Amino acid sequence: MVDLNNLLLVFTAYIIGAASPGPSNMRIMGVAMHQGRRSALMLAAGVISGSLLWGTLAATGVSAVLTQYAQALVVLKVLGGIYLLYLAIKAGRSALTTDEKTATQLAAVPGTSGFRLFQRGLLMHLTNPKALLGWVATMSLGLGPGASSLTVAVILAGCTLLSITIFCGYAIVFSTAPMIRGYRKARRCIEGSLAMVFGAAGVKLLFTGS
Q: Residue 58 belongs to what domain range?
């Protein structure tokens, strides 16, 4: 049988981890306010796919094995750190660009394709070792020695639905007209904040053991 109290604990822990502001959520928010709902949903789809992949690996025990090999995590940390620093530089340059110049640049640049945004979201989540470790922790909470395949399936299905709700929710909420108007007024401040968040996260991945 599935332990409902244990499931509640697992899902609560997952919601706290997934919904807390972090690089993926902040990126979805920025794209939603800057490029609109459709683009943000495509980015969110990539993040969700990455999350589901890590969840599947955690459920099968593969990711738990990976955590035993320091070199595998080092590679993930370096890739993730470099990618986050790239996003930080990009957001920082945007923050330093005037509104007039930004409008001119946007008019001259073709829109990013949906598949490209999907790839970016997927890459962001797959190169984030904390996503891997978060899923290992989630599965550790939910799966005891005698856990059944039904329990595994319920946890994966529930966390997948929560992932879709959370990440797509960010995309939808932050692509609404009031949010977009607010973004246009505070664009440079928001981009500067994104640069700091991405930069801090990237530096932490590259230079700390956490």
A: 4-207
